[in-house]
Write a structure and sequence with these properties.
CATH class of the largest domain: Alpha Beta
Distance between the termini: 44 Å
Shape: globular
Structural class: alpha/beta
Largest sheet: 7 strands, mixed
CATH architecture of the largest domain: Alpha-Beta Complex
Number of domains: 2
CATH topology of the largest domain: Spore Coat Polysaccharide Biosynthesis Protein SpsA, Chain A
Number of strands: 11
CATH superfamily of the largest domain: Spore Coat Polysaccharide Biosynthesis Protein SpsA, Chain A
Helix content: 40-55%
Oligomer: single chain
Number of helices: 14
Strand order of the largest sheet: 3-2-1-4-7-6-8
Length: 373
Amino acid sequence: MFVIAARLAGALSLAIWIFLALFRGRFWRLRERLAVPASPPGPARITAVIPARDEQETIGLTVSSLLRQNFPGSLRIVVADDESSDRTADAARAAGATLVIRVPARPDGWKGKLWAVANGIHSEPAAPDYFLLTDADIEYADPRLLAALLAKAESGYDLVSIMVRLSTASSAEKFLIPAFVFFFFKLYPPAWVASGRLAAAAGGCMLIRADALSRAGGIESIRNALIDDCTLAARIRATGGRLWLGTTPMDLASIRSYGPAREIRRMIARAAFAQLDHSLLLLAGTVLGMLVTYIAPLLLLFSGDRFSASLGFSAWLLGTILFDPVVREYGAPRWTVFCLPAIAAFYLAATLESAWLYKTGRGGQWKGRAQDV
């Protein structure tokens, strides 16, 4: 009986990896790339809206890097200071932000970040052509980035978003962060997003047409969303908008370091259960799926049954092949491709912790706020 179960688990795991390799939009190849445009885009008015809460250390670099962008048109930078307890507003002004506003007290039914974004948008006297919704810890080091984003939008997209390069400064980040990108694109293959099959976006850097945002009901329509980027993408798609999601070889990076593994775990736990719509049934399915896909292949190597072990080895090897492009993209040690089962176990534990935090009223913790309760 054990041998039959082991062989079934091995066959299922291998079938899953074959499906992911061939029939999941080739997400693992990272082919959707934002490159320098061959010709400059037309002129456009862009307003960058940056929600910032206790971001004194990073907001200056974000603002100054945006001011160095070279594109045809005009750029206004609005920083929405979300009840910061440090000198975030002073740092933003010193860096050259066009406007720094103090966000009023958040009303019921709003998530803090979205309330700040909405106030930043409404502070503009006239609607621009595009809004750049970006985080307060993103450095636009390459001055051609806004031109590239604008050119991609003008090629027929209403929302263009980039998965910015996350920090891999610490050993824990090198080990765990590439998998975050791998798992995200597995859930939302960029090729499927561009074709309209799925709706998704990466919230660190989103360029959105102002009229598309208005048609979708504005930020108010997603006021209570914890995973605001993908929720906004779904609203844009539902109103006939087109989406593009990808990466870029240009220098666009988060300057926020998560450091040790416990901080990365907290980052995952903040929103993982919300991603599952707070469903215990989906949580159970996720646990089972992760065990079969990532953990079982390694365990089958020690099953004592040669055929089960060969199935497990084949599944594990195929997983390392698919994981390798992301590891190379992030410059992580190549040996980490073989550690996907252990990395997946870490993410699974963080997902279970996310459910526990939600059930105990401590979900979505971010800078003193429990946002998912």
